[in-house]
Amino acid sequence: MEKDRISKDWKYTKEVIFERLDRKMKDEQLYLDYRLTLPVFSKMTGTNRTYASRVICEKYKGFREYLNSLRIEKLLSDIQEERCAGLELKDPDEFANSYGFRTRRSLDRILVKETGCTYRKILRRRNRSK
Fold it and tell me: What is the pLDDT of residues 60-102, one digit of tens each?
């Protein structure tokens, strides 16, 4: 019986920790910094690195996947809301940096994995549909 209570308590605690981490990440848009690491993030949130890793891994494969999903979500949202006007004229690496990716190649790799398209294809499609 005690084991069940501890298991329930830990499950609740994991949810609370994840919600707190997720809220901070999204509210402050920390995921847009391509230099963000799990140790830095856990220190910013006052959470033990191991706990942060465990709760994020419950929902995502790992910290990088969590960050990339938030970055792609923001990029696609901005494209849909047309907040990316003129960005196709920017330096591709600068564009990638503005969404938390180190280079255009890393952005394209993740985008192709998630959507099947590079960012230029997505922007071209958006411009054609206007």
Answer: 889 999 999 999 999 888 877 766 555 555 677 888 888 899 8
The model's pTM is 0.79
DSSP strands (E only) in the chain:
none
Structural domain for 4, as ranges: 1-65
- The token pair that represents 58 in the structure block: 């419950």
The tally of domains found in the chain comes to 2
First to last CA, the chain: 61
- Are residues 101 and 41 part of one domain? no
Of residues 71, 66, 72, the one with CA closest to residue 42: 66
Per-residue burial over 32-63, b = 16 or more CB atoms within 10 Å of its CB, e = otherwise: bebebebeebbeebebeeeebbebbeeeeeeb
Q: Do 58 and 100 belong together in one domain?
A: no
- In Å, the largest CA–CA distance within the chain is 63
